[in-house]
Amino acid sequence: MSSNRRDFIKKVTAGTAGVAVGSSAMGMSARSYGRIIGANDRINVAIAGLGRRLGAFIPPFANKNNNVELLYLCDVMKSQRENAAVRFADHIKKDPKLENDIRKVIDDPEVDALFNATPDHWHAPGTIMAVAGGKHVYVEKPGTHNMHENELIVAAQKKYNKVVQMGVQQRSSDHTIEIIKEIHNGVIGTPYKAVAYYTNGRGEVPMQKSVSVREGLDWDLFQGPAPRRAYTQETWDYNWHWYGWDYGTAESGNNGTHEFDVARWALQVDYPTRVDVEADKRQFVDDGWEMYDDMEVTFRFAGNKVIEWDGKSRIGYQTYGTDRGTIIYGSEGTVYVDRGQYILYDRKGKVVKKSTTVSNEAGTALGGGGDMSTAHIENFLATIRGKGELNAPISDGVITMAMVHYSNIAYRIGKGFDIDDVSGRMFDRDAMNLWGREYEPGWEPKI
């Protein structure tokens, strides 16, 4: 049965019309045959990375209609594995295996799909390992750590012909899909500019100090592809986002990815022709935060289109009236859209229409989850079964990720630069020096 089920998943993923029914099946009752088809249609999944995004996976996995079986909960921190098992216990029938090493999960042929919610530096390497190991992958944003990984992850997806969805869940938001379609159909005339923003009041971050590795933490596996260094206090628990560039992609990658993606989607643009950045660390200037906490970026595109990013990590003033969202300007009107709603204005600023549905997706709360995440995961599962089409395929997601990487590179080299809007290459020697990264020897991602 296990072999039959894997064959079934392979066939529907390849787009076959159905499964042949042999004579033995024809002799079964409808109920018995239905059970076999149900087992064949089941998707065995694993989650790697059991931190703040964990709650987003519970509703879709607990829904019997999704026919998902959770085989593994994987994390380099023992307490994370145990906590995740407790949280899932009331929602699923079978207890998943608790595993430390993502590589062992990938090696299990019973796993059909990996949900990769690891830290940023593990996103592309873990996904590449998984597709090479025959798994479909749902990889949380930012999807990649650098431009070189953009190339590798797309090449791996194509080579192994697996379904890879990037976790920009607003692509599966009903109200966002509705208003973006209207924008594309001319409801605000010609869209020419989008302002994407994020505002949070994050607090002071401790200075890093060398301490013994936290009990239950596999520090070597946490580092994985990153160069090895001594453990510093609580680096593993979220603050890796702000402690240099070995692990994180700063706020641009942590949250900007989502709004960049909506803005690019609305304007129907791909690579920009130029990026300029003004950014600095401006709050708690003597704490352990090691990169900008305030950033303004301007991306210019062919056709005189512009996307601006206004990211404020630690100053809570809501310049635009809400904590995150996107404003799209057109020749005949304006659209405001966020995770909960959209508002359409005419050219004079009068409200013409508001969305009739309201999403419960979390905004700036750590981790979050909600109906938008559930819909995005269900879109991924449907595509594996050959019953849907990805809303955020990795081949498109990496173009949004390029905007993240361009903004971070411009900050790091202290200047803007021009870009080839066909290849995505940067016309600046200093910028191209940051195209990739240094990997721990033996951990370089390979296709």
Write the layout of secondary structure elements.
Elements: H1 2-13, H2 23-26, H3 30-41, E1 43-48, H4 58-62, E2 68-74, H5 78-89, E3 97-99, H6 102-107, E4 113-116, H7 120-132, E5 136-140, H8 147-160, E6 164-167, H9 174-184, E7 191-199, H10 219-223, H11 250-267, E8 274-280, E9 294-301, E10 305-312, E11 324-330, E12 333-337, E13 342-346, E14 351-354, H12 371-384, H13 394-413, E15 417-418, H14 429-432
Parallel strand pairs: 1-2, 1-4, 2-3, 4-5, 5-6, 7-10
Antiparallel strand pairs: 7-11, 8-9, 8-15, 9-10, 11-12, 12-13, 13-14
Helix pairs in contact: 7-8, 8-13, 9-11, 11-13
Q: Key terms for this structure?
A:
14 helices, nine-stranded mixed sheet, Dihydrodipicolinate Reductase, domain 2, 2 domains, globular
